[in-house]
Amino acid sequence: MIDQTNKIHTMKVLANDGISKSGILALEKGGFEVITTKVAQEQVANYINENNIDVILVRSATKVRKDIIDACPGIKIIGRGGVGMDNIDVDYAKSKGIHVINTPASSSESVAELVFGHLFNGVRFLHDSNRNMPLEGDTNFDGLKKAYANGTELRGKTLGIVGIGRIGQATAKMALGLGMKVIAADSFIPEVDVKVEFFDGQSITTKIVSQSLESLFKEADFITLHVPAQNGYIIGEKEFEILKDGVGIVNCARGGVIDEVALVKALDSGKVAFAGLDVFENEPKPEMAILMHSKISLTPHIGAATGEAQDRIGTELASQIITLLS
């Protein structure tokens, strides 16, 4: 690209929430300059304009709203490393002629594995025993052994998946591999063929037919949510009442889809046996009642935070950017 001074203008990419080394190398090979300086939210617009940034890449931390879009007419692409786009004003950006890209397939397996990390934590009390063993393991070993003696197997149980898109399907594959029954509810996907592939090249395919949320809530032993940000709760006080007694709930999707006040109440009453949360209503400052609860397994929004997923995200973003701007 030639600027007004007839000098070559190297396209600049600001990866404000980071990008993998493989993504940087792919972009640099494509002729782009990659900047990984972490710019504070309130300084993003100024930084973009002062440094002639052409592309801004974000994950979940940085927000690209109307104010930044209006203030930065030089922006050509807004990229989101991952699935959810709720931190970007997508339609408004597109109305201004800006490309908006993401990587919906890159992190599915990583998120699904974290779901099962929380499920295994919950059914065997690992999150709580890992808190208490360092404190009491040498003085109350037999007491702790008794406290954590009533574990549950996942095999043979029913996993209800709310949202059977890419991540929901990856979660379904792992559940099927464990010998679980899988049911799903999805307003947009009436049925899906899920292919479980094995290390030796063999595979099996099974059809999952979407059912109503209410029937899923009544039938599932464990529930995992894989939906975008919502206007209201998917599981609120009314929904908790119809869940099976002793259900386990995992949310590695978006904060705000579960009513956390109602969740704590359900955990305290025993209606819900445990919860696994990677996302929260109030990020980055989750409520203390959530953080301190002995029946909640906690992670700080790390669903896609594996080396493998970040490599895929970085190279996929790079490929899309090079295609759009070359």
| pLDDT < 50 stretches | 1-7
> What fraction, in percent, of the residue positions are helical?
25-40%
Summed up, the domain count is 2
Fourth CATH level, the homologous superfamily of the largest domain: NAD(P)-binding Rossmann-like Domain
Report the count of strand segments. Answer: 13
Biggest pleated sheet: 6 strands, parallel
CATH architecture label of the largest domain: 3-Layer(aba) Sandwich
Average residue-wise pLDDT: 95
Radius of gyration: 22 Å
Q: What is the N-to-C succession of helices and strands?
A: EHEHEHEHEHHHEHEEEHEHEHEHEH
The shape, in one word, is globular
Strand arrangement, largest sheet? Answer: 7-6-10-11-12-13
The percentage of residues in β strands lies in: 15-25%
Per the CATH scheme, the topology name of the largest domain is Rossmann fold
- State the end-to-end CA separation: 9 Å
CATH class of the largest domain: Alpha Beta
The helix/strand class is alpha/beta
Number of helices: 13
